TrEMBL record:
Keywords: Magnesium, Metal-binding
Pfam families: Inositol_P (PF00459)
Catalysed reaction, written as an equation: adenosine 3',5'-bisphosphate + H2O = AMP + phosphate
InterPro entries reported in the protein's UniProt record: CysQ/Inositol_MonoPase, Inositol_monoP_metal-BS, Inositol_monophosphatase-like
The protein's name: 3'(2'),5-bisphosphonucleoside 3'(2')-phosphohydrolase
CDD domains referenced in this protein's UniProt entry, alphabetically: CysQ
Length: 264
């Protein structure tokens, strides 16, 4: 498989494992289900990457040192690697542990050093195992999707259902928009790609694995993706903290960036 097909396959495999775990373990102990989901998906994904892409480095949310900001001293292999898989084995653990919720996801992205001056994302997939596509199979979005049709009515902005940015209510009031709360960063970005919403705005804390795969999918569909100040999103950095982002339809980027700036 090429890298894009592999990313979609891996997201599908991990998603199937998570769906099975949810069915077998049930929802009586949400904390235990969250922990089991994180571990099961991480273990599966890391094992498959070691089997099929053994020369590549991996950055996973579930690595013990994943949140460490590295200095110029001892560093993980990913910082000198040419290819790094950035994965979030379970994005939206809260939603995963709540019966009936479908807004949780699996993220798989590939960063390559040769894809630009700072490297870049070259493959990405977001699996949404609790949702189905037109063929009835669990939904997995990859790159190269068509751009949805234009905005009709108020600008719909996906926001965190539990941690919306403090300024977002002001932003929505300024532009006459509509907030659409949902879980999982991947689900929110994919909602932009599919036309369910027009934008996703986040600030206040994320890491590279929260946005890498969704951003790869969004860019592949012709969407705008940046920090909320308009600067580029960069991956495989010494500090994996990447606390904010804007993903939106390209024709809305200038308007939204200007409105966000006024709200800061």
């Amino acid at each position: 498989m090429d890298d894009q097909a592999f990313a979609e396959w891996l997201a599908t495999r991990a998603g199937a494992a998570l769906t099975g775990l949810r069915a077998s373990q049930g929802f009586a102990d949400p904390a235990a289900l969250k922990n089991a989901g994180d571990k099961a998906s991480h273990d599966l994904m890391v094992a498959e990457l070691a089997r099929w892409r053994p020369e590549d480095a991996v950055l996973s949310e579930e690595h013990a040192d994943s949140r460490q900001a590295w200095s110029s001293g001892e560093q993980p292999p990913r910082l000198t690697a040419d290819r790094v898989w950035i994965i979030d084995p379970l994005d939206g653990t809260r939603e995963f542990s709540e019966e009936g919720r479908t807004d949780w996801a699996v993220h798989v992205a590939l960063w390559e050093r040769t894809a630009g001056p700072d490297g870049g994302l070259t493959a990405g997939a977001v699996g949404m195992p609790a949702r189905t596509g037109a063929d009835g199979a669990p939904l997995v979005l990859g790159t190269g999707l068509p751009t949805p049709t234009g905005v009709d009515g108020p600008i719909r902005i996906a926001v965190s259902r539990t941690r919306p940015p403090a300024f977002v209510s002001t932003l929505i009031e300024q532009i006459g928009g509509q907030a659409v709360p949902m879980g999982s960063a991947g689900v929110k970005v994919c909602a932009v790609v599919t036309g369910e919403v027009d934008a996703y705005v986040h600030a206040g804390g994320q890491y590279e694995w929260d946005s890498a795969a969704p951003v790869a999918v969004a860019l592949g569909a012709g969407m705008h993706a940046s920090r909320i100040d308009g600067s580029p999103l960069r991956y495989n950095r010494t500090d994996p903290l990447l606390p904010d982002l804007l993903v939106c339809r390209p024709e809305l980027a200038e308007q939204l960036l200007a409105a966000i700036a006024r709200c800061q």
